[in-house]
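Student: Send me a single protein entry containing the residue sequence and its fold in token form, directly below this note:

Tutor:
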Amino acid sequence: MPSLQFTEGSARPPSPRAQNKQLLVNVVDGLANYRPDTVWAKIPRNDQTFQDGFQKVTYSKLANAVNGLAMWLEKRFGKSLNFETLAYVGPWDIRYIITILAAVKAGYKMVFPSAAYPAAGLSQLLKRLECRKFLVASADFPLASSLSEFMQLDIHEIPSLMSLLETVVEHYPYEKTFQSARGEPLVVIHTSGTTGPPKPITLTHDWAAAWIQRNQSSVPDGHSSRERFTHGIELCVVAPPNLSSSLFPNFFGALANQITVLFPLPTSPLNIDTVMELVRRNDPSMIIAPPFILDNIATNPSLLEEVAAKVTTIGFGGGPISKTSGNILARRFRLMGMYGTSDIGVLHKISPAGPWDAGAWNSKSIPRIILIDPFLITTGIMFHPGEGLDFRKVPNEEVFEAVVVRNRDPEDEQAVFKLFPELQEFSTRDTFMPDPEREGFWMYQGRIDDILILSTGDTVNPLEFEDRVSAHSLVAAVSMVGTQRPYTALLVELEAAACEDLATSIDQVWETINDCNNLFPPQIKIERHHVVFVPQGKHLPKSPKGYVQRKMAMEQFKDEIEKVYTV
């Protein structure tokens, strides 16, 4: 896909060139100069209500806001000469994007700590980045003060969003070329915490350019690109603004492909009401949302009709979708699963050319590591060959690990090798199964880290068992353990309401566990005395995405687990 090429201070209009890498700060400034009225985002006019409608944030306004905040940073802290890390926390608005570009111009780099993590863990993340300056949208954000209990922080309140958008300032130049700045930091994201404490990942300008190049690359003959569905459209992304699941489409994807993105009220909850307000008052062609949001749409006929009047494509990630919801949505939308990680980004998906097959979102029979689960479905994905994925069979398992093999041409290598230039291959630790009905499609099965290897030599994938027990109304969270043990055990956290009549609640939950025992192979069977109910007041550790962090749970409750195996 040709993209306009911009450089700082260019006196001539940009010319289309295919796949030429450039800096995103220059893209924003260039579009502000030559296409100033092009819309990047739409945000509520009033930050207290949706009733006043939405206002357009053009590239001219975005560039002005970036310049204003860059000036504010330089005036407040001076210009950084060593890419000092600044942290920011704020409400659900576009200042997350503005701070990234403003920090680059002023010589800094941003990181966005997630309030879903305990302050102690986040303090370790910030210490690792040598981050001491913490930016906040307003003084009433408790995360900064919570972190101050674990480390010394210099807290600063940044200008309001309306001030940044409406106060006209002079252009703040960024004089570096792509070649000179390609290895410099663009933004720091951190891992989701699904497998442990958050770890920083510094994405460079070169990483962003390589990812965009893969996203825009031409497809093999006889195929079409699923990424092209998003180029130039209005997009509704349902994800907190500080997470990579929001930054990839709203920042990297939108700026490179002139996508218009939607933002809700700053204090909006992550729920179906927020989604419907965005849809009703705008014209999105696509929604990207977690499965629980899509379940709400699929199971409410009036909401389904309302969304279908505007939206043509739905993408989902963060877990499987129910078969019932998937079948309903697939009849009305192009429904597709998303796959990506913090290191490699969201990968380019393709499909055979021709009309969209509404039944192709899921196969009639879905093999899993241990069993066929008829209730939870993950879609098959065909990946662009330029992504370099090699699926390698996991020993003693029926699944394959996705390994990224480095492309030979240095200018065509995948983004992940900008992070790990010493590697020729990158192990994703994610497992897939080949779609039994569609050649070339692969179906996500879970992390290798999820697989429990018992001391008997048996292997267990606990995900479906955990999902079924977690669905019980009295259960808050579940985690199965058993690696290097002779049998499995189950950690169960009950909802607060269950503690009112604890004995009865435990009996009811045990009935569900025992029902699962009758559905699953014997190596996964849970005996009643192998169930550990988490003491009241304690919680299984979770990532910001809501997943139980298995390794951290095993460490936190190691004494309780040990008792199961020593009785």
In short: The two ends are 64 Å apart (CA to CA). Residues 364-376 have pLDDT under 50 and may be disordered. The longest helix spans residues 59-77.
